[in-house]
Amino acid sequence: MSKPYRAGSTATNKREVYEVDEIRRALKACPDTPTGARDRFAVMLLWCTGLKTAELLSLRAKDYTRIAVKAGKREIIIPGAQRDRLEELHDAWQEHRRVIAGASQRKPLLCNLSGGALDSSYVRHMLAALSEQAELGKRLNAQGFRNTFAAAMHYAGVPIEIIRRQLGLSDIEYTAGYLAVIAPVEQHGAMGTFRLEE
Prior knowledge:
By secondary structure, the protein is mostly helical. The chain contains nine helices and two strands, in the order H-H-H-E-E-H-H-H-H-H-H. The longest helix is centred in the middle third of the chain and has 19 residues, at 83-101.
């Protein structure tokens, strides 16, 4: 039996979900530089796949296609409506990556300017900096993007087993508990038709 999903009252990042406009503002805040192209692609990847930071940084060039991303043994299907935009950002970063890392399939997909691996602290600081530059009034983090991806699937009516597989969660019960915290569909539905007597 799996442990139920719990997000304590102080664990804001465990329940945070971002608005589309907030993510778009963060994408626009990335500078027009090689690192900016990489960071823009990284943000879009987090949004479209719900990858954890370690999974994001362990990706190799061969793990990404226009249709899916392979994270370990798991294949995450990229939402159809986002494929063109993600591919555009991938290609923009690849122009710089080819200069930095050549055609190597072994080097990280999101490498540093020497062709080596990025550290997880880089992702934290990068997202924090984008939050400030975009004046979001909140701090972006990888878990928040994962929550946003999961909530979007849930609100769109994607079956819970597909959501579980996309996120690589342990089982249906845990997935249901997680979704109930970040995307309470039934609660929103019930209160949407509820009327207080005046």
